[in-house]
Amino acid sequence: MKTSKVTYMGNLSTEAVHLKSGNKMVTDAPTDNNGKGEAFSPTDLLATSLGCCMLTVMGIVAARHSINMDGATVEITKIMKEDPRRVGEIIVELIMPPNGYSERDKQLLERTALTCPVAKSLSAEIIQTIVFNY
Question: What strands, in cross-sheet order, belong to the sheet with 4-10?
Answer without folding.
Answer: 4-10, 13-18, 24-28
